[in-house]
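Exam prep: given the inputs below (a chain plus zinc ion), describe the expected output before reading on.
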Amino acid sequence: MKILGIETSCDETAVAWVEQVENEFCVVDSLVSSQIRLHQRFGGVVPEIATREHLKNLPQLTKDLISNNALDLNEVDGIAVTVGPGLPTALLVGVSYGKALGVALGKPVYGVNHLEGHLFSPFFHLSKKESSPTRESSPSPSESLEIPFPMIGLIVSGGHTLIIEVKGWNRYHKRGGTVDDAAGEAFDKVARMLGLPYPGGPEIEKWGELGNAEAVDFPQSFPERDNFNFSFSGLKTSVRYFLEKNPEYQERAEKKRDLCASFQKAVVDVLVRKAVRACQLIGSKTLVVAGGVACNGVLRERLRQKCQTHGIALHIADPTLCTDNAAMIACVAAARLSAGIDPDLAGDFNPNLHF
Ligand code: KG4
Ligand code: ZN
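Solution:
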């Protein structure tokens, strides 16, 4: 089985080619053309710019994928495209392109939920190749796919913060989520307050490395034991008030490091505590973690320690697959087809798609 994946839900244009031989999945190549630099000066993603870039980049990126790997588009068994959630016009570009290709090739076009892509991305592994500043290419070894249902999924990205109980394909039960900002959004907004560039997550992590995470004690939202909701807007406001009262934390480098480490600790603590508690509550021995914020080294290490203590198997996406990519979209379609749970044929895109 050969699947072409297309992802354009936000500010990364991505395509990937996945092949399945028996129970083995092989990501032949996964290309991501990032627009981060274009959006940087606005401090966040500008939908119209994202859409124009997808229109410009998607056909070329697909050509590159095909020619770099000597592939033949006529050999695909299907095309998998992200149908939501995401920016409406950005999704429209990918869905229209995927459908046009499907018509031209006479192949089915499957619609994949972007969140489902993130959720299962820890099970698809890529090996790294050289990457340029704007493009990452990651061919992979083959990988057999066995998903250890039931499990708890923690999705933490710029647009989402979710705790989901996953009993099987299509059997998803949201246990909690953010009532306001997503975790990545909080990193981005606090970075902006500190004069650090977008995206803020990697910047805060870098600044926090040498900082004292105990320097400032920020409050945690929804501290009740079995409440799996988050509020990162409250944390962001606490940081704002704190900076107003203590401007030296913005002005002096060593204080800024402390602030970054303390803020990061507040986010990591609440994510780790709630994800592990959700596993205990439903009796799941498996935690899967994905999304851009899962690149964070402190979060990864804390999850590793806590899961070890509690006897939970942790599956955390490779950093190359944490941020948006099309390999996860193609793999979900391929995995569903091979499990006999056919993905839906791509209909309309849905910016508000959820589980
Ligand atoms: O998954 P993603 O690429 O896009 C969405 O679907 O939203 O996630 C991007 C988010 C940004 O908010 C970025 O600041 C955050 O992931 N991020 C991080 C790190 N790397 C990226 N947050 C914390 N620490 C990081 N190292
Ligand atoms: Zn995403």
